[in-house]
Amino acid sequence: MRGSRIAACSLGLLLAGIAWALGPGDVAPDFALTDFNGKPMRLADYRGKLVLLNFWASWCGPCLEEMPRLSALQRNYGVLGLRVIGVSMDDEAAPAKRLLAKRPVDYPIGLGDEKLGERYGGILGLPQSFLIDRHGLILARYKGEADLSQIEATIKSQLNAPQ
After folding, report:
1. What is the spatial distance between Cα 51 and Cα 45, in angstroms, rounded to a whole number?
2. Which residue of 2, 8, 11, 139 has the fewest CB atoms within a 10 Å radius of its CB?
3. pLDDT tens digit sequence for 123-133
4. Alpha helices in the chain (DSSP H)
5. Domain limits of the chain?
6. pLDDT confidence of residue 163
7. Does the domain made of 23-160 have the CATH classification 3.40.30.10?
8. Among 68, 128, 69, 77, which Cα is nearest to 99's?
9. Phi, psi at residue 38, to the nearest 5°?
């Protein structure tokens, strides 16, 4: 009997976590960070822009592979209203800053933490990205190694959509 109660509680917690995970149609939680250049970075400041919010870490191989493509997206579509924002989930800023000194990117990056990850429904596994519309609603959540060509196609369609 005790084992079935524990299993039921575990299942309930798991289902609650699944129900809580953010996805399309949900409002993207605002946050305030300082980027690695010392500038304030708030999601609300990007209202009116299409935002690709990318959670990554310096030790994550797939994260490092996609960073040049994310920079290219920012360069190619920034003038049309795209803003790529990086959030390092490293335990401290130093490893991310060392990596960025060797491999700079064309978008702001700040240091996130577990609390910010929880506000986004739990960032379990990296990379994870959220495409956020001009009104602050999540359009898509990409977990793990995402198809960046598909993300780019979605970005193009959103930038061409009437505001």
Report:
1. 11
2. 2
3. 989 999 999 99
4. 2-20, 61-77, 93-102, 114-119, 148-160
5. 23-160
6. 65
7. yes
8. 68
9. 85, 5
Angle at 83 between CA 69 and CA 151, to 5 degrees: 45
**What is the rounded distance in angstroms from the CA atom of residue 134 to the CA atom of residue 159?**
10
Instruction: Give how far Cα 110 sits from Cα of 1, 35, 51, 77, Å.
Output: 48, 4, 15, 21
Look up residue 90 and give its amino acid: D
Q: How far apart are CA 50 and CA 62, in angstroms?
A: 23
Q: In degrees to the nearest 10, what's the CA dihedral of 34, 35, 41, 43? A: -120
Amino acid residing at 147: D
pTM: 0.87
Q: Which residues face 88 on adjacent strands?
A: 56, 111
